[in-house]
């Protein structure tokens, strides 16, 4: 089950189908894995607070993932997204908010499933998995612009 909580009205104002976008991306990322995920769509201030409390970083970020211990099954964890950061990134990266949100939800769910990007090998593996999942729901490669700028 995927529970979606829209705490910041900006999300629905900018993307009326925001809950459907999140549901589709989270479902695709989970694949056949059964478990509950909570996705909180909030504002930069709330994410800044969480980022400070749990990661000692006094700034908002696009997405935070909070996996729970396996003993808490079937709940896999929580994902929190900051509207302002996500919207600004979408504009800067010339992506739709829906596509960027889809990418970040997939990214967050993969963290809940134990994926990480602490080193180059992990990052490449996680990015490949993200690309495959996103392609399955019709979202373009979120890293294509990065690859083009590296050429």
Automatic annotation (TrEMBL):
- Keyword Nucleotide-binding in the entry? The reply is no
Q: Which domain of life is it from?
A: Bacteria
Statement: the UniProt record of this protein carries the keyword Zinc: yes
Main localization of the protein? cytoplasm
Residues the entry annotates as binding Zn(2+): 107, 111, 117
Xref: InterPro entries: YbeY
What keywords are annotated for this sequence in UniProt? Cytoplasm, Endonuclease, Hydrolase, Metal-binding, Nuclease, Ribosome biogenesis, rRNA processing, Zinc
| Chain's role | Single strand-specific metallo-endoribonuclease involved in late-stage 70S ribosome quality control and in maturation of the 3' terminus of the 16S rRNA.
Instruction: State the family named in the UniProt similarity comment for this chain.
Output: Belongs to the endoribonuclease YbeY family.
Protein name per UniProt? Endoribonuclease YbeY
What species was this sequence derived from?
A: Brevundimonas nasdae
Q: Output the lineage of the source organism.
A: Bacteria, Pseudomonadati, Pseudomonadota, Alphaproteobacteria, Caulobacterales
